[in-house]
Design brief:
Blueprint: E1 8-12, E2 23-28, E3 32-39, E4 43-45, E5 48-55, H1 56-65, E6 73-75, E7 79-84, H2 96-99, E8 112-113, E9 124-128, E10 134-140, E11 145-146, E12 152-158, H3 159-168, E13 175-178, E14 182-184
Antiparallel strand pairs: 1-7, 2-3, 2-7, 3-5, 4-5, 5-6, 8-14, 9-10, 9-14, 10-12, 11-12, 12-13
Helix pairs in contact: 1-3
Length: 185
């Protein structure tokens, strides 16, 4: 398969519509960005708009167990929503000039073939489907290994199961994904 999954393109939260459950980045231009966060709907307090934002692990726990969790209020201008962009050819990772970004907003996140990543466990993954679609919101739970039929693969779990593993100790159900269909976000 030669196709690559669509890249992640950060969009300012004030331009993104509904936010509940969406994956977001928070930060300040020129200072840095933090990912693996989820948002709730915008809240207006006085003349300011805020976005309740929490780590993904807390969001999944709250949704799964129907509990309340603390979500700091982040000014909307410091929140960016991860949206899927148009597929493009990946640029070579060893070309440093192509990796330079502006510090004015979070960088695009172009998926990289799993074969090019030295370690996989815990990383966000995308499975390309035979019909050309994508399955996202996965985490690698193993490194590359040989399957029973002799193919090279890795095992993945849904993010809900990945995070549930942390808060409950329950080992996740996993899916074996062939190397040629596995990409890392």
């Amino acid at each position: 398969m030669d196709a690559a999954p669509r890249p992640i393109v950060p969009t300012p939260a004030n331009m993104a519509g509904a936010l509940r459950g969406r994956r977001v980045l928070i930060g300040l231009p020129g200072q840095g960005w933090r990912g693996d966060m989820r948002a709730d709907e915008k809240v207006v307090q006085g003349s300011r708009t805020y976005v309740p934002v929490m780590p993904e692990s807390e969001w999944y726990r709250a949704e799964s167990e129907r509990t309340e969790v603390f979500a700091p209020m982040v000014p909307v201008e410091r929140v960016w929503v991860e949206e899927l962009g148009l597929a493009a050819s990946p640029s070579p990772l060893d070309d440093v000039v192509n990796r330079l970004v502006s510090l004015d907003d979070p960088p695009r996140r172009t998926p990289v073939a799993a074969r090019a990543i030295p370690t996989l466990t815990g990383r966000r993954a995308v499975q390309l489907l035979e019909d050309g679609g994508e399955r996202r919101d996965l985490r690698c739970v193993t490194e590359l290994h040989t399957s029973d039929d002799g193919g090279i693969c890795a095992r993945v779990a849904t993010e809900l199961d990945w995070y549930r593993w942390a808060w409950s100790g329950k080992t996740p159900s996993t899916l074996e994904v062939p190397l040629e269909l596995l990409w890392i976000e």
